[in-house]
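Exercise 4. Each item below gives a protein and its sequence. For each, produce the structure-token representation.

Item: Protein ALP1-like (Aphis craccivora).
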Amino acid sequence: MWKIRKNIEDEEDLLMLGAGNNKRRFWVRPTLQKRNEKGVDKLIMNLQNDDVGLNGELRSSFKNFLRMSSHDFENLICLVGPAVKKKNTNWRCPISVTERLSLTLRFLATGDSYHSLMYQFRISTQSISLIVPEVCEAIINALSGYIKMPSNEEEWKKVACEYEKIWNFPHCVGAMDGKHVVIESPILSGTEFYNYKGTFSLVLFAVVDASYNFIYASIGCQGRISDSGVFKSTSFQKLMENCSLNLPEKSVLPGRNKLSPYVFVSDDAFPLSPCILKPYSGHQDKGSKNRIFNYRLSRARRVVENVFGIMASIFRVFRKPMLLQPKKVEKVVLACVHLHNYLRKSSSKNTYTPPGAFDSEQLDTGTIERGTWRKDQQSSQSFLSISQIARKSSIEAAEVRDEFSEYFISEQGQVPWQLNYS
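Answer:
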């Protein structure tokens, strides 16, 4: 009888020590309980103080940590705070808005694992797995006004004027592209997300303006879907097909007589249509109008390539496969897209994209100076180009492209250096 009683007492001791599954040894680990003493709130304050040196010189400690200035961070707290703030309870104080937002931004900036972030922020991995998707969704909702597709002819014409002024491409209302965001193999997904590059991915489709801002973004297509399938699955394609984009009416290009539509520029991955221009396929003779057209098209389309490159360089969660399920990956990617526009349009945008970040050209020769994001060779490894498949286009679409190619070799449409690159 005594031995039986002793065994029962031993089992109870093991349960109290945490060896059993019914009782926890700690409600919160002792190390994590020191979050209020040594947590991120004080780190943020120290970084803000460190950014102004003894002689008043500005440093970039805060920007290096969260990828934005302290002013943008404080403003983002005001926008996101109401959606992520939690109430106090009789048991314990909640994780603050500052900690939640800092944790999420640090995850986007580095792509560190939840276990690594746990020791840095003194927040359990279980809580982090809930906080990151919640804050990302709050960022998307709070910054939804920063990604706005033009809704009428006047707004589209403003985009076209920028492309003509900056990139010498009239009637262009956006550059479009799609990229694969690499993820880990989703549970029980088979080959659904397996792409032609041999990785698992979700596809991000985007349209950008001449100032490196997103005007449309969609993610969610599985990596195995072809390029045409990705485009057809977007609401953007449906609006274009139904003529619901409210694009401006056709008008003549400068110095030309034929009416031409307003168009989007793309690469070979997309179908040629009256509203979508893509390069001429195959080898083109040096100096020919087709080759000149391809150069001028790639020059305008470089904008979207730079946007993807900058975003992947700043938010390094893209540099490695995301160890999240697809629905959470969608929130993470869209949060980065919204943050890109938010930081590009903020008063301190030079903190996010300093001079030299994007590709630039010398006005007299057209020589390309590579942006600083290209020096980071790993910055775009998470983005894989969509496969290119030849397809037959309509006669009307081919005539539109030919009209643009004729314009680019005309006196009004040519640029002095184009023969050097075509």
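Check: Strands lie at 172-183, 200-208, 214-222, 251-252, 259-260, 263-265, 276-277, 360-361, 368-369, 383-385.
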